[in-house]
Amino acid sequence: MKAVLLLAHGTPEKVEDVPAYLRNVTSGRPLPEEVVKEIQHRYSLIGQSPLTCWTFDQAEKVAGELGIPAYVGMRNWKPYIGETVGKMAADGVTQTVAICLAPHNSRTSVGLYRRAIIGETGNAPFTVDFVESWHDHPLLIEAFAERLRAGWRKANTESGATLPVIFTAHSVPTRTIEAGDSYETQTRHTAELVSASVPEVGSGVWRFAFQSQGASGGAWLGPTVEQTILELKEQGHRGAFLQPIGFVCDHVEVLYDVDIAFRKFAEEHGMKLWRAESLNGSETFARAVADLARQRFGLQAKA
Question: Which residue, of 156, 166, 235, 264, has the greatest Cβ tally within 10 A?
Answer without folding.
Answer: 166
